[in-house]
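sanity check this chain:
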Amino acid sequence: MTTARPKTRFFAVALALAGAAQLSACESGPAYNPMLLTPDVLTATAPDVFQARFETSKGDFVIEVHRDWSPNGADRFYNLVSNGFYDDVRFFRVIEGFMAQFGIHGDSAVAAGWREARIPDDEVVQSNTRGFVSYAMGGPNTRTTQIFINFGDNSRLDGMGFPPFGQVVEGMEVVDQIYSGYGEGAPSGSGPMQGLIQYRGNAYLNDEFPRLDHVVRATIVQ
């Protein structure tokens, strides 16, 4: 009896969240997985090595993740991809020769839920060179959902505490083609302002930055 209660409560919460997601879908666009509203539940341990396929508006690429490179980062990425977090997410900060950054959810309710869902830092055991993938962060222990793919040798980031957790093993030529015309984000540049993405989601990006490329769907494939 005692073991059944948490499960019953879990499904009740899931059903309630499903209703909220359907309402959100009617009001603002496609439905999302209601589990994305409960970051504290999405804590599965990732496989030692796995691959995630990203279908995008420019084509497909595959990220191979090695958990021993960045355990906390790999686990978070595995949970995000497994639950559809990156679906319909925009590449909002793409700087030619530097990196392509994405990972703010297009629905503001989901984005708000993950904003403070931070993971502890990992040691840097790989280098931020071409094709390697790391989390964006604003200081120690601030990684959440935003990630970036290095276009070139950005090994200077290693000493700043950015630990790669994966590497693009297929389709780096697709990543090279992601639209970079908006450049750095506001207020430093003319690209999207992160605060407004968090507040308005894809509606803001579609209205003011229509040329941004996006993830169509991301799935675990191996």
Observations:
- The radius of gyration is 17 Å.
- The first strand starts at residue 49 and ends at 56.
